Amino acid sequence: ETLSNQIAAGEVIERPASVVKELVENSIDAKATQVDVVVQDAGLKLIQIIDNGIGIEAEDVPTAFLRHATSKILTTRDLFNVHTLGFRGEALASIAAVADVTLATATEAGLGTIAHIQGGKLIDQHSEGLRQGTQISVKNLFYNTPARLKYVQSQSTELNHILDIVNRLALAHPEIAFTLKNGNNLVMKTAGHGDLQQTIAGIYSVGVAKSMLDFSGSDLDFKVTGYTSLPDTTRASRNYISLMVNGRYIKNFQLIKAFIAGYGSKLMVGRYPLAVINIELDPLLVDVNVHPTKQEVRLSKEDQLSNLLTTTIRERLGRENLIPDA
Ligand code: ADP
Ligand code: MG
């Protein structure tokens, strides 16, 4: 049981940033409006997530850490109708299998629950006065899986992975105020006022945000909106393009290629825009249960969506007279 938990954990929890991603997604699912992330030693010593979401009832705490006990998928139809970021019910169990976890949670201000999970086992649970929300502290990640620990890279690399995922989750949720601290250093902060351009300003810079073009386009199945760079303020890496499908940050090379194609010859070879692309669609058109980390999704009508992305950007740049013949 412990071993199978550790093996399964490896699929979801590759590195400190995976823990941050899963815990922040839980905070988002819990309807938090403020999410604070604190790490020490790039997350190897400590990862702490504090939210003001709906909290967990005392009686639900033990099951929250059981694999699949909370799985929201009951039928195959549910698989195509996922409205929360989490649905597999394995993140907390996976994290608890490879680290020491302390949970402090309350569904309303007043009496809350403190729980300690060690070696995947709930060793203590008691009541305590707390404010509403959830705080999860993950200590000594991978202490019992030396093979995994060996693959963890330098602290600066791991911290960059953490910053990258917090940035993307914040860009996907401008209505949530995020902070990320490494020790006492504030690494990022977003306002959480619901404005995407303001969120971009918080993450990159006010100058970058102001220089971007807003775009929007739709057809019968898809709606795409967001912000993207002018052709003359591009980057040398594709990593500054964030793709969100119904509020979920995903990776999809074809869609990014289609988006870039909208720039035509205006984009120099090896240059890429900085962009945030929000795609809204009927959940029935997307299957998010392709991979445990849920970052790869299967889309119906992907070619149609690709076309929409290309034409939306081409027309938007055309309106700026950037592509005279478009
Ligand atoms: P999943 O998100 O796939 O349901 P997780 O293992 O990530 O599975 O979380 C298990 C359950 O614990 C969630 O379904 C949710 O009910 C509860 N939970 C986890 N984190 C939080 C949180 N920050 N606030 C409220 N509930 C939470
Ligand atoms: Mg989850």
Write up this protein.
- The chain is an alpha+beta fold and 326 residues long.
- 32% of the residues lie in helices and 27% in strands.
- The protein folds into two domains: 2-189, Histidine kinase-like ATPase, C-terminal domain (Heat Shock Protein 90, 2-Layer Sandwich), CATH 3.30.565; 211-319, Ribosomal Protein S5, domain 2 (2-Layer Sandwich).
- The protein has helices spanning 2-12, 16-29, 61-64, 76-79, 91-97, 146-151, 155-172, 196-203, 206-210, 253-261, 302-319; strands at residues 34-40, 46-51, 100-106, 110-118, 121-130, 133-139, 177-182, 185-189, 213-218, 222-228, 241-245, 248-250, 275-281, 286-287, 298-299.
- The protein has an eight-stranded mixed sheet with strand order 5-4-3-6-2-1-7-8, covered by helices on one side.
- It is elongated.
- The model has no long low-confidence stretch (mean pLDDT 89).
- The structure holds adenosine-5'-diphosphate (ADP) and magnesium ion (MG).
Number of helices: 11
Fourth CATH level, the homologous superfamily of the largest domain: Histidine kinase-like ATPase, C-terminal domain
CATH A-level architecture of the largest domain: 2-Layer Sandwich
Mean of all residue-level pLDDT scores:
89
- The coarse silhouette is elongated
How much strand? 25-35%
Number of strands: 15
Encode the helix/strand succession as letters.
HHEEHHHEEEEHHEEHHEEEEHEEEH
**Which cofactor or ligand species appear?**
adenosine-5'-diphosphate, magnesium ion
Helix content estimate:
25-40%
Poorly predicted residue ranges: none
Order of adjacent strands in the largest pleated sheet: 5-4-3-6-2-1-7-8
- Structural class, from secondary structure content? alpha+beta
Rounded to the nearest angstrom, the radius of gyration is 21 Å
Please summarize the sheet with the most strands.
Answer: 8 strands, mixed
CATH fold-level name of the largest domain: Heat Shock Protein 90
User: Roughly how many Å apart are the termini?
Assistant: 60 Å
Please report the first level of CATH classification, the CATH class of the largest domain: Alpha Beta
How many structurally independent domains? 2
Organism: Lacticaseibacillus suilingensis
Family: Belongs to the DNA mismatch repair MutL/HexB family.
Keywords: DNA damage, DNA repair, Endonuclease, Hydrolase, Nuclease
Protein name: DNA mismatch repair protein MutL
